TrEMBL record:
BP-aspect Gene Ontology terms: intracellular manganese ion homeostasis
Matches recorded under InterPro entries: Ccc1_fam
N-terminal signal peptide: none
Keywords: Ion transport, Iron, Iron transport, Membrane, Transmembrane, Transmembrane helix, Transport, Vacuole
Family, similarity comment: Belongs to the CCC1 family.
GO molecular function: iron ion sequestering activity; iron ion transmembrane transporter activity; manganese ion transmembrane transporter activity
Main location per the UniProt record: membrane
Transmembrane spans: 44-66, 73-97, 135-157, 164-185, 197-218
Localization per record: Vacuole membrane
Protein name: Vacuolar iron transporter
Gene Ontology CC terms, in alphabetical order: vacuolar membrane
Length: 220
C-alpha cells in the first residue's frame, strides 16, 4: 500500500531564507522593496535638515554679532528659513528633473537598441525613476525642520548671552542627532560621523559670527 503524502517544495534564496511557495512569504515582498532608493531619500532628508540647522543658526549668530535685540535675530532667522527652504526645494526639483530627463532618454536609447518590449520591465524601470516633486518637498520639509530648531531655542529668551548659548547648545545637540542618523543610514562610524558634523557646524557658526563682527567693527 503506497503511502499518501503531499510534497511541498522548499525554495532557498541566496540570503539563506527558506520560503514555502504555497504561502506567500513576507520576505519575498520585502525583497521587492527598493531599499537603496529609500536610503538615498532618507539620507538626502538628513542632509537637508542638517543644512537648514547650520544655515539658520549661522545666520542668527551673524546677526547677533552686531545686533543684540531678539527681534532682529528672529527676523533674520525666519527670513533665512523661508529663503533656504524655497532655494532647497527649487534647486532639488530642477536637479532631479534634469536627472529624470537623462534617465528617460537613456531608457529610450536602450529600448531602441535592445528592442525591449516587455511591459513588466518598463513598469519596474518607471518605479525606479526619480520623482522631482517628491524630492523637492522632502528637501523643503527637511530644511525647515532643521531651521526651526535654533528659532525655537531663541524665541522665548530675551537675554543676549543666554540666548546665544541656548541656540548653540540646541544646534550642537541636533547636529549630534543628525550625525548619528547619517552614520546609521550610511553604515559608517557613529563617532566619526558625529565629530565631522558637529565640528563642521561649529566652524560655520564661528566663521559667520567672526566676519559679521568684523564688518560691524569696520562700520560698514
Amino acid at each position: 500500500m503506497a503511502s499518501s503524502h503531499i510534497e511541498i517544495p522548499i525554495i532557498i534564496h541566496p540570503n539563506n531564507e527558506v520560503v514555502n511557495p504555497a504561502k506567500p512569504s513576507q520576505a519575498i515582498e520585502e525583497n521587492n522593496i527598493n531599499y537603496s532608493q529609500r536610503a538615498q531619500v532618507l539620507r538626502a532628508a538628513v542632509l537637508g535638515a542638517n543644512d537648514g540647522l547650520v544655515t539658520v543658526t549661522s545666520l542668527m549668530m551673524g546677526v547677533s554679532a552686531v545686533r543684540q535685540d531678539i527681534k532682529s535675530v528672529l527676523l533674520a532667522g525666519f527670513a533665512g528659513l523661508i529663503a533656504g527652504a524655497c532655494s532647497m526645494g527649487i534647486g532639488e526639483f530642477v536637479s532631479v528633473y534634469t536627472q529624470l530627463d537623462i534617465e528617460l532618454a537613456q531608457m529610450k536609447r536602450r529600448k531602441e537598441e535592445n528592442k525591449i518590449t516587455s511591459i513588466v520591465d518598463n513598469e519596474e524601470k518607471k518605479e525606479d525613476l526619480p520623482n522631482p516633486f517628491q524630492a523637492a518637498m522632502a528637501s523643503m520639509v527637511a530644511f525647515s525642520i532643521g531651521g526651526v530648531v535654533p528659532l525655537v531655542g531663541a524665541i522665548f529668551i530675551k537675554d543676549y548671552k543666554v540666548r546665544m548659548c541656548v541656540v548653540v547648545a540646541l544646534a550642537s545637540l541636533a547636529l549630534v542627532v543628525f550625525g548619528v542618523i547619517g552614520a546609521i543610514l550610511g553604515k559608517t562610524s557613529v563617532n566619526k560621523s558625529c565629530l565631522r558634523v558637529v565640528i563642521g557646524g561649529w566652524m560655520a557658526m564661528a566663521i559667520t559670527f567672526a566676519f559679521t563682527k568684523l564688518i560691524g567693527f569696520a562700520g560698514i
